[in-house]
Write a structure and sequence with these properties.
This protein is α+β, with helices and mostly antiparallel strands. It has one domain: Glutaredoxin, CATH 3.40.30.10. It has 3 helices and 5 strands. Strands 1-3-2-4-5 form a 5-stranded mixed β-sheet, covered by helices on one side. Strand 2, helix 1 and strand 3 form a beta-alpha-beta unit. It starts with a strand and ends with a helix.
């Protein structure tokens, strides 16, 4: 699985599960970039077939519906969907 990293201000561990074709996922990435937040992400639809089940289970751990985007902050707080206000609050902004 290829995890991509985006440099920025460290506001804790921010991990984004996204789809490369998802408009809300693109908006979430754009928001994190605009805020200058350091984060890592994986485009779930681009993982090798052999890893699909593993990645899907990782997403379902935080979001049983496995919808996108799913953002996990500090390995404990999920933000499901494009929710700019909630995401900013969880990042302490």
């Amino acid at each position: 699985m290829e995890i991509k990293h985006v440099a920025g201000a460290n506001r804790g561990k921010v991990f984004l599960y996204a789809l490369s074709t998802c408009g809300w996922c693109r908006k979430t990435k754009a928001l994190l970039n605009e805020l200058g937040i350091e984060y890592s992400y994986v485009d779930v639809d681009l993982v090798p077939a052999a890893e699909e089940d593993k990645v899907t289970e990782m997403v379902k751990r935080w979001n049983p519906q496995a919808s996108f985007p799913t953002i996990v902050i500090n390995d404990r707080t999920p933000v499901i969907g494009f929710q700019p206000d909630k995401l900013k609050k969880e990042l302490g902004l």
